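Journal club prep — side note

Before the paper discussion, L.F. wants everyone to see what a predicted structure for a comparable chain looks like in token form. Sequence:
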Amino acid sequence: MELTLVGIATGNPDHLTLQAVEAIRAADILLIPDKGEDRQELADLRRRIAAGCVEDDKARLVSFPMPERDPTVSDYKVRVRRWHDAIAQAWLDALAPYPEARKVALLVWGDPALFDSTLRIAERIRKVRPLDLKVVPGLMSLQVLTAAHAIPLNRLAEPFLVTTGRHLREHGWPKGIDTLVVMLDGECSFTTLDPAGISIWWGGYVGMKGQILDQGSLAEAGPRIVKARAEARAQRGWIMDIYLLRREVPSASAP
């Protein structure tokens, strides 16, 4: 079986690459994760993207229930590994009725290489059946965020760090870095920082219908973002957001 992980950016069909469109059209089966009613919009977006690419009835859209993490497991990495095991089994169960399928595609938000575990889950499949694994890269939400705000990702000749909300909460601002991109943050972890001298560029549903943006000093924009995020999540039942933080530096180092 050939499994292609197709990066679809943020769900905006305009962000699909030609390579992504070709991979979707070539598939015998398109796997669609079902994350429940509160995230039905995400499954519907995948279906609309597929429908816009597939010109005939060649490809089957096969849904599978997305397992949830076990909240009773206290160790974070153990909890995630077990979750990945369950997802891999869900893929196998969904594909079992189609032994003749040779080309399978899974649409992945953003790019499979960055803070996405689809590649790790695919490796579990390789342990139980032959698998030719391919990846089609996609636009990442951090690129869509910086484009939406029309800002550079890094300062001149300076590095940046992509991290998670959990790491920011548990370890604080890393030394030697003035620009942070924070992903997978469900708790507005920027509120744990001393806001002095920090600016934030935030986006919810970046690149999608209903995109929300805000930016400014963390002291002023932070409370607005917390409120806007909570309201948007309550209205739509889910939210995906990302933000960039930048600390002030001496003027000689500024862009």
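L.F.'s comment for the group: The chain has two domains: 2-136, 141-253. Keep this in mind when we get to the figures.
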